[in-house]
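Before going further, learn to read the protein records used in this course. Taken together, the tokens spell out the fold as the letters spell out the chain. A record is reproduced here so that you can trace the correspondence yourselves:

***
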Amino acid sequence: MEMKQNIVSDIKRGSLPAFKEFFDDYYIMLCVFAARYLKDDEQCKDVAQEALAGYWERREDFDDIYKVKGYLYTVTRNSCLNILRHAKVSQDYQKNYEDELESESAFEDHVIEQETYLLVQNAVDKLPPQMRRIIRYSLEGLNNPQIAKEMGIGEGTVKSLKQTAYRKLKDQLKEYFYLLLFL
């Protein structure tokens, strides 16, 4: 967590490399978050990019990673709702959809889901390359024989590397284990 706090300080001082690293971490996550509201991938990308650009413009206002995340999620959500309000959809559908989207618990659930995704994705990215590929294939729904065929290795090797990868992930995510279990 200290590293993320340092990145906020670096961005506040105008560090473009720090902002690029932050952008790379949060851009995809904000796109996925926006996709909960919007069906158009290009609109989702625009909303995520605008939220991050807004953060860059207001970077001096933020000292804390939690405030930055709150800002990004709120701006993304509000931009999506504005797009929906201006879309040419039936009044009843729009009203029902906005009521559902604006419910506080739904918003919190989406934020938690995205934060959890980032935690797991960062942990998977720290695995050795072969284990990382195996875990990604598993997350795509492939079973051990399919992974073995895809990677050109034996099923026993896949099973062994997968077990080791899960142990490493559990170790990396141990402080978040109960949160992940709850979700």
Observations:
- DSSP finds ten helices and no strands in the chain.
